[in-house]
Amino acid sequence: MDCRLIFALLAAALFTGCSSSKTEDKTGRLNIVVTTGMIEDAVKNVVGDSVQVTALMGPGVDPHLYKATQGDLKKLTQADLIFYNGLHLEGKMGEVLEKLGRVKPVIAVAEGIDNSLLRIVPEFNDSADPHIWFDVSLWKEAVKTILSGITELDGKNNGYYNANAENYLVQLDSLHRWVKSQILTIPEQQRTLITAHDAFGYFGEAYHIDVRGLQGISTLSEYGLRDVSDLVNYITKNKIKAVFVETSVSEKAINAVVQGCRDKGFEVQIGGNLYSDAMGESNTPEGTYLGMVRTNVNTIVNALK
Ligand SMILES: [Zn+2]
Question: How confident is the model at residue 16 (pLDDT cuts 50, 70, 90)?
Answer without folding.
Answer: very low
